[in-house]
Amino acid sequence: MSLGGDDGYGGDYEGHEPRRGRGAASEGHLTRTRLPEGDGDPYGPPRRAPGRAKPSRNVITVVGVVVLLLAAIAFVNRGDGKDGGSSSGDTGGGGGTEAHPTAPTGERPVDGKNATTGIASGFAKSEQGAQSAAANYAVALGSTEMYNRDQRHELIPQIFTTAAADRLQTRLDKAYSASSLGRIGLDANGKAADGMTYVSRTAPLGTKVGKFSGTSATVAVWCTGVFGTAGEGSKNPVTNDWFTLTLKLRWVNNDWKAESYSQKAGPAPVNSDRTASTADEIAKAVEQYGGFTYAR
Question: What is the domain-level CATH number for residue 282?
Answer without folding.
Answer: 3.10.450.230
